Amino acid sequence: MAANEKTKAKTEQAVGKTKEAVGRSVGNERLTAEGRAEQARGDARQAKEKLKDTGRR
Predict the structure, then answer these.
(1) How much is the pTM?
(2) How far apart are CA 33 and CA 53, in angstroms?
(3) Which candidate, 53, 33, 21, 3, places its Cα nearest to that of 41?
């Protein structure tokens, strides 16, 4: 299950970066903000999984 969550985190980060880049290139501030928010969700999910892994050792 942890691998699945880690994959979700990486996917959210990648999609967020793409949205942010597209938003910047077309001048769409809303899309840029959505991309940043998605990256933040991915970062939070990844941090949570890292904490879980640390607790298992």
Answers:
(1) 0.83
(2) 30
(3) 33
Query: Are 22 and 36 contacting, i.e. CB atoms less than 8 angstroms apart?
Result: no
SS3 for 1-55 is: CHHHHHHHHHHHHHHHHHHHHHHHHHCCHHHHHHHHHHHHHHHHHHHHHHHHHHH
Reference 1, options 54, 52, 57; nearest CA is 52
pLDDT tens digits, one per residue of 1-57: 578 988 999 999 999 999 999 999 999 999 999 999 999 999 999 999 999 888 876
Cβ atoms of 2 and 50 within 8 Å: the answer is: no
